[in-house]
Design goal:
48% of the residues lie in helices and 13% in strands. The chain is an alpha+beta fold. β11 and β12 form a beta hairpin. The protein is globular and about 65 Å long. Bound molecules: protoporphyrin IX containing FE (HEM). It is found in: Membrane.
Length: 603
């Protein structure tokens, strides 16, 4: 893909005169003397070196009287080309009215062409490397098949979390992957728009591709970065390289067990409130409550209070706006990877941007207020711990900037509450369907003062069957050579199908679909001889894992899980309500899309 490509109006049409027809444009190689001589004027627009778009006005010697405008496009990554469109529009805004329209049309065409060239080249490289997969179309890739298969599956909700009915959970939440897996195996390539994704549900392949030194060759996919920017900013989830390592070093100690102990009170108080509301709700009724709604709301409140406090300053308002943003972003059914698809969601993007701006301003006020009073040591939330950590000698005195602190607060909120809430919600459902495990956990709570072993097994088993993060993604930062000789080209995304791996009978046995927490007693997932490493990935893998040598979220999740579950089991007996419909669905997370209705009987 060396050199440039030029877009020039064919047939001598002078589009600068305001009568361009997009169909007339032809792709011409630039660099031939007859075309690229004597540029009269050149404007380079774009914000980063790889985003260069040169609008070059040339005079062909043989067409002195009819100057053509030539747009030179460097073959850059198509996702970045959306930036180019924005930049081109900005540049064109300084020109006359019709020039604006022409520049816009040229830019759109340029983006599409660039994406087409890029996708075709990537497809060739992947096929050469031996990766097969369903045939994509341009510019949607395999999205039409994904949408059609999903539509055909959604009506098949079953009544309860009965294991036999749930045997095909993977095919229910990822019907397209199940179908392609049957044709192409556990590793194949599919396309979201013009973005190639290496689908992986084979732990051996995953280990070969990302284990050891290979791990550093993978980053977070660009294609999701922009979509998730309003949620995570440039916080830990999205940061890369040295910046990521620095953030992680500052943040990790704030999540230590000792620091989190100060949050037990917050968790217990919020949970008591939730249980009181449930107790009131069932008085005089049929005893049925949608526990998922309550648990999600409770977890959001806990993480907001634990992160930046909601009882003072503008905390409550930030919490409200973060929730509004989450609702907004969840609605969006984006055409991921499709060039220019963002332009179809302009209103929503604008709303998210405005909410983001308000949230940032409020958080900035909170941080400023904290900076003024940290010396008094009044607050024990994560924000204060981070402010304190930044000034400690252990971190080399490196403070996170206000901007970075804002992004981390948002990251904790979006990364931390829903995952924990979903783990708890699915747990309540499975315990309601398995009263013997409710009894076992109650007994453990009565008799044990230390480690709650059985509760640990239950948590692992729930995360295996219903992983709140049903997939983990990466993008190759460079060409990656696999031990078998295959090469994954730079820029290829990887989509690790956690649900498929967690429910694969070849990895977990013929009862893989059954709720059997005791399998984690005899068989800890990372130690069993016949089970490959990396077949249990609820928190991701490698350096970016949520639960790693340096813990980020696990301590908080584990503590909240224990507190909420213990308090709930002590207060109520749980049964699956007749109105419950089992409808697990992937909406970023793996959610019970019709809620979780349980009958609660006070104990
Ligand atoms: C059951 C609960 C949770 C689950 C299932 C979960 C899952 C995950 C997953 C799958 C990843 C991506 C890992 C990868 O790319 O390999 C991740 C990363 C992350 N999680 Fe969690 N998480 C949970 C709880 C939390 C909590 C409570 C917090 C913080 C308040 C949190 C903060 C983060 C952060 C900051 C990252 C990015 C780490 C990095 O890139 O270095 N998570 N989590």
């Amino acid at each position: 893909m060396g050199g440039h490509f030029g877009l020039a109006p064919a047939g001598g049409v002078d589009w600068a005169a305001g009568r361009p027809s997009l169909l007339w444009f032809a792709l011409l190689p630039v660099g031939e003397p007859s075309i690229s001589t004597a540029p009269q004027q050149s404007s380079s627009v774009g914000r980063a070196p790889q985003l260069r778009l040169d609008l070059v006005y040339i005079n062909r010697p043989q067409q002195e009287a009819n100057p053509n405008h030539l747009l030179i496009l460097r073959p850059i990554h198509p996702i970045l080309m959306e930036e180019v469109v924005a930049a081109a529009a900005a540049a064109a805004a300084t020109a006359g009215h019709h020039e604006l329209a022409c520049a816009g049309a040229m830019a759109v065409l340029g983006v599409l062409l660039c994406a087409l060239i890029h996708a075709a080249a990537a497809r060739r490289r992947l096929r050469r490397a031996g990766f097969d997969g369903p045939k994509p179309s341009f510019p949607l890739g395999n999205l039409p098949e994904i949408t059609a298969t999903l539509k055909a599956t959604t009506s098949k909700n079953t009544r309860a979390a009965d294991e036999d009915e749930d045997q095909n959970m993977h095919a229910r939440v990822f019907p397209y992957f199940a179908r392609w897996r049957a044709s192409f195996g556990k590793v194949f390539v599919y396309w979201l728009g013009t973005e190639p994704f290496l689908y992986v549900s084979d732990p051996e392949f995953l280990k070969a591709a990302t284990g050891g030194a290979q791990g550093k060759r993978w980053g977070k996919p660009d294609v999701f970065r922009r979509d998730r920017m309003p949620m995570f900013g440039r916080g830990l989830v999205m940061a890369e390289g040295d910046e990521w390592a620095r953030h992680r070093n500052v943040i990790a100690p704030a999540f230590s067990a000792a620091n989190l102990a100060g949050m037990v009170g917050v968790m217990a108080e919020a949970t008591a409130g939730m249980l009181d509301r449930w107790a009131q709700e069932i008085v005089g009724g049929d005893g049925v409550v949608d526990v998922e709604r309550g648990v999600v709301r409770n977890a959001a409140e806990i993480i907001a209070r634990a992160s930046f406090g909601v009882g003072q300053d503008d905390g409550a308002l930030v919490f409200e706006k973060l929730q509004a943003m989450q609702a907004l972003l969840f609605q969006s059914n984006r055409l991921v990877g499709v060039p220019l698809a963002r332009l179809l969601h302009v209103r929503r993007t604008y709303q998210a941007w405005r909410l983001g701006r308000d949230i940032d301003a409020l958080l900035m006020r909170i941080i400023d207020a904290r900076r003024r009073r940290t010396s008094k040591g009044k607050d024990d939330d994560l924000l204060s711990l981070l402010l304190a950590a930044g000034s400690s000698s252990k971190t080399g005195g490196k403070l996170l900037s206000t901007r970075q602190l804002i992004d981390e607060c948002k990251t904790f909120f979006f990364g931390g509450h829903e995952t924990t809430a979903l783990a708890l919600s699915w747990t309540l459902l499975l315990l309601a369907a398995h009263p013997e495990w409710q009894d076992a956990l109650r007994e453990e709570l009565e008799t044990t003062t230390g480690r709650l072993t059985k509760m640990g097994w239950v948590m692992n088993e729930v995360l295996r069957l219903y992983p709140p993060s049903p997939n983990v993604q990466r993008q190759a930062l460079e060409d990656i050579l696999l031990p078998g000789g295959q090469q994954v080209p730079r820029g290829t995304n990887m989509w690790v199908d956690v649900v498929a791996m967690h429910r694969d009978p070849a990895l977990w046995g013929h009862d893989a679909h059954l709720f059997r927490p005791e399998r984690f007693a005899a068989d800890p997932p990372r130690q069993h001889a016949h089970r490959p490493m990396g077949c249990f990935l609820p928190f991701g893998f490698g350096g970016r894992i949520c639960v790693g040598r340096i813990c980020v979220g696990r301590n908080l999740t584990a503590m909240e899980y224990r507190i909420v579950l213990a308090m709930t089991l002590r207060r109520f007996r749980l049964e699956v309500a007749p109105q419950y419909r089992h409808a697990p669905r992937v909406m970023l997370s793996l959610r019970p899309s019709a809620g979780i209705q349980l009958r609660l009987t006070p104990l």
